[in-house]
Amino acid sequence: MTENGRAALLMTAAMGFFAVEDAFIKTLTASLPVPQLLAMTGFCAALVFWLRLARRRRALWTGALLHPMVVARNLGEVVGAFGFVAALAKGDLAVTSAILQVLPLTIVMGAALFLGEAVGWRRWLSVAVGFAGVLLILRPGGAAFDPSMMWAVLGVAGLTLRDLATRRIPANVPSDQLSASAYGAMVPAGLALALFGGQPVVWPGGLELALLAGTVLFGVLGYAALVAASRLGEASVVAPFRYTRLGFALLVAMVVFGERPDGLTLIGAALIALAGGYAMWREGRGRRPAAVSADGLARKR
User: Fold this and answer.
1) Is residue 40 part of a domain?
2) Which of 50, 130, 267, 282 is the most buried (most CB within 10 A)?
3) Measuring CA to CA, which residue among 148, 145, 147 is closest to residue 264?
4) Does any domain span residue 296?
């Protein structure tokens, strides 16, 4: 099997792990308040990345984490996570996951509007198709409109800020340090939201602790597989396989939660997946020439 083939399998596995993680989170929202869940998962995930840094004898904290783009990235991570978890708590997993898949398209739009990146008409067309898919899912103003899904839209906005800010962070800041600081920021944010919202703290029982452990485990497995796939394969080949997450999410939603998305929702999800996959493929092709080093060898991205 080629490196691209193995990378595609790793990316697909990562998306499966993330879909299972989402199922654990949705289950936890039935018994734990969203702000508390945000703080607990943030603490556990930050601990994992801090341990990774300690094992590699790297600093847990440096002044680089005060860089404005790092602060903006952490803010985006907190807003994105809160919006996504709130959408899972109040709405369907299938619909929430479908809306989340528009993220690559909002990044294309944000990069063009705010970072001055060149975007051709083909990718702008894919953005328009993807947003048409979102409107088919949301159907604002119609009887099928679910206001709780606006939490998913907020989540996409936060994650877009996160990824755009990441592009402007100095390259010497380790990715594990960035991840640890972002998850760590969820702890005070979750506690503050719980305090201002007047929500009492719920002491987790054995089942909740087991589900929390599963959330962290599958999240870390997904992260590891994602990083391995990104390093092993070419971006233009591997990136579109991120959309297998939508297929896994639909399967989990139907089997575990008994959800049955209607025809328009499935059509909208398909439009988002096709448009996003195409935009990723075009961006990956565009970056390939820039990723060739002076000795003529293509670097893995």
Assistant:
1) yes
2) 130
3) 145
4) no
